[in-house]
Amino acid sequence: MSTTPVMSLKPRGIKWDRVALYAVLLLLAFMFLMPIYVMLINSIKPLAEIRGGNLVSFPLEPTLEPWLQAWSLAQIGVEATGLKPYFANSFLMVIPAVLISTALGALNGYVLTQFKVKGGTLIFGLVLFSVFIPFQIVLIPMARLLGELGIAGSVKGLILVHTIYGIGFGTLFFRNFYAAFPQELVKSARMDGAGFFVLFWRLMLPASLPIVVVNIIWQFTNIWNDFLFGASFSDYTSYPLTVALNNLVSSSTGVKEYNVHFAGAFIAALPTLVVYIVSGKYFVRGLMAGSVKG
Amino acid sequence: MATLHINGVSKSFGDVKILHDISLDLADGEFLVLVGPSGCGKSTLMNVVAGLEEPTTGQVTLAGRDITHLPPDERDVAMVFQSYALYPNMTVGQNIAFPLEMRKVPKAQRTEAVNHVAAMLQIDHLLDRKPKALSGGQRQRVAIGRALARQPSLFLFDEPLSNLDAKLRVDMRAELKKLHMRHGVTTIYVTHDQVEAMTLGTRIAVLKGGLIQQLATPMELYERPANLFVAEFIGSPSINTAKATVSDSGEVMLGDAAVGVKLDASLAHTDVIFGIRPEDLRVSPLDTPGAIHATVALLEPTGAESYVLIDTAYGEFTLRMPGPGEFVVGQQLAVSFDAAKVHVFDATTELRLG
Fold first, then answer.
1. Which of B48, B89, B94 to mutate to test the interface with A (most CBs of A within 10 A)?
2. What is the pLDDT of residue B309?
3. Facing A192 at nearest CB: one of B73, B82, B89
4. How far is A105 from chain B (nearest CA, A)?
5. Does A203 touch chain B if contact means CB atoms closer than 8 Å?
6. Which of A76, B30, B298, B337 makes the best surface tag, with the fewest CB within 10 Å?
7. Quick one: pLDDT at residue A293?
8. Looking at chain A, which residue has its C-alpha nearest residue B131?
9. Within a 13 Å sphere around the CA of B189, how many CA atoms are in the beta-carbon half?
10. Cβ contact A243:A231 at 8 Å
11. A203 contacts in B (CB within 8 Å)?
12. Where along chain B do its domains lie?
């Protein structure tokens, strides 16, 4: 190695702390990626190869048949429809729930920060508290409520459940964001004659894109991945994808078709993966965004 | 006639009293400057007039209407904020049109008003830009445009030039003055900068601790400050002060020398404060009778003039001289002054005497 005579303040030679850092990072990356690798690799192998034993080896005859099976042909419960209809169910459930809970969270945050509400702090405290309630406690009362409303076992019922749960976090995110909103903008709008809804709709909401993105990502992930509410409050017409996946795995008779199961699991994970890849950086940005310069 | 009457307005936040019984009257077209140090209550008073705060006691009347408890948008008052408060998601044109939109003005009229105001403030080429694409001075003009478009009875400016750099501040100050001369809208202008106060106001209200210290024209504040605070606040560099006494006959004495100001004999033996502005001190020959002897401590040339800090027997004084000044640090000199330019204040009450 040729060295040019240059003044250097850094010690020469191998930097051991760097090596250690990279080693740890590589190890962690490996640990996280390994299961995904195993899943992917085995989802494109024919069953014979899987039975052959080596989970980690590359497929000799890769095939997309398991994916096709998982999507539209596999046995789920009593129907051989694959995951497709339940994929649709999940979307039908997630999208309205995310939109409604975001809207309500935003409205709550707006009211709690821009208006002097009697007991406002207490209300916020209670809403915050709801975030920490374990889902299991709510199962029986919620089942009763859905029954009385006549929407038990339907996608509508799931939408209601997830919306209610989403309001807690939504209020938290938006309230903190709006608390840091520049007050002079609000004063100016008030002086210009903006009323309750105009102030919200035309000024604060358009300026809160970062936190809307945060909320959407958060709610989407939580609602899409939820299993408990899905399993408790849906029937065979309204299973979300998570429940259907579980049924897929447990309704195979005789031979366990691991390749199909892996493909199914991947299909279930894909949307949240896509959401994070597309908007992940906005998540951090949105959480960091305190206010808007106007 | 957009006359404004503020009667006995007090404002407390819980136990803290910010404004103490403020009363002032503005004639139509007057430009009143509220000036004072941070925390003196000037912004609070503005907010009460604007309708963003309710006064604890007192009334505000504008053009004959009692607006004390009206919501801000019903008061016919427009405000320009220190941070401009431009709506970030709207274009410049939409920003200016917003108050008109809230009043349900038809679109054609709105566009006309926006174009008219934009042409006047020379921002018509910016109408489609968003605020974040504008410079500070441009944003300032959009904020003023938005207030102008409403054609209100009263303008409120809350330290609008504080966020601008020094040169732009001077330029915008002149523009604001020209704007007022052209439109003659009654204005209240809040600032902590006394140069802005002096150049812009037809009258100035100096506030401290929620009380009006003096309400007068700029020249009157400068030449006859009502108390020590006003004397020290107005004028840059600050007035020079020194402890002084009053002789048996009422002569104000700085040390052993009489300064040439005679007060009423009843004030004999009171402790007073002697004040003379830096621009009223003249360098004179060392043997001039009644001159104060001093040593040069520091020179601050600013181009057109210099500020010379001198050590005297009575404390450190500042002297203002045209040109670069030919002094060196440590030089001995003598300064004298015209008795008519001397300000005398009671040492305890700080009120003006004589």
1. B89
2. 93
3. B73
4. 21
5. yes
6. B298
7. 41
8. A294
9. 29
10. yes
11. 87, 89
12. 4-233, 240-353
The values of phi and psi at residue B162, to 5°, are -65, -30
* pLDDT average per 10 residues of sequence, chain B (354 residues): 87 89 91 90 90 90 89 88 88 92 90 90 89 88 90 90 86 88 91 89 92 93 93 90 89 85 84 92 85 90 90 91 85 90 91 85
Shortest CB distance from A188 goes to which of B51, B85, B132? B85
If you average pLDDT over every residue of chain A, what do you get? Answer: 85
- pLDDT for A5 equals 59
Distance from CA of B162 to the nearest CA of A (A): 15
Strand partners, B275: B241, B343
Report, as an integer, the average pLDDT of A60-83.
82
Q: Domain A84-288, CATH 1.50.10.10 — does that match?
A: no
Distance from CA of B202 to the nearest CA of A (A): 26
Cis peptide before B237 (omega within 30 of 0): yes
Question: Could you tell me the pLDDT band of residue A100, with boundaries at 50, 70 and 90?
Answer: very high
Show the tokens assigned to A67: 């994916």
A187 in contact with chain B, both atoms CB, cutoff 8 A: yes
Which residues of chain A lie closer than 8 angstroms to B50, CB-CB? 187, 191
For residue A254, the 8-state DSSP code is S
Would you list the domain boundaries of chain A? 16-63, 84-288
Chain A residue closest to B147 (CA)? A192
pLDDT at B111 (0 to 100): 92
Check residue A76 and report its DSSP letter: B
Angle between helices A120-131 and A155-179 (to 10 degrees): 130
CB A286 within 8 A of CB A213: yes
List, in sequence order, the alpha helices (H) in chain A. 16-43, 47-51, 65-68, 84-114, 120-131, 135-149, 155-179, 183-191, 196-198, 209-225, 228-233, 241-250, 258-288
Q: Which of A181, A188, A201, A209 would best serve as a mutation to test chain B binding (most B beta carbons within 10 A)? A: A188
pLDDT band at A111 (very low <50, low <70, confident <90, very high): very high
- For residue A41, pLDDT over 80 is answered with yes
Note whether A247 and A82 are within 8 A (CB).
no
- The CATH architecture to which B240-353 belongs is Beta Barrel (2.40)
CB contact under 8 A, B77 and A203: no
The fold adopted by the segment(s) B4-233 is: Rossmann fold (3.40.50)
Q: Which residues of A touch B136 (CB under 8 A)?
A: none
Residue B21, both tokens: 């019984």
The B315-322 sheet, strands edge to edge: B281-284, B332-337, B292-301, B305-312, B315-322
Q: Tokens for B31, please give them.
A: 């430009």
φ, ψ of residue B13 in degrees (nearest 5): -110, 100
Q: What are phi and psi of A222, to 5 degrees?
A: -65, -40
Is the Cβ of B314 closer than 8 Å to some Cβ of chain A?
no
B57 vs A130: CA distance, rounded Å: 43
Q: What is the residue whose two structure tokens read 């007991």? A: A119
- Residue A18 vs residues A11, A21, A25: alpha-carbon distances, Å: 13, 5, 11
Average pLDDT over residues A121-148: 90
SS3 content of chain B, % helix, strand, coil (to 5): 30, 35, 35
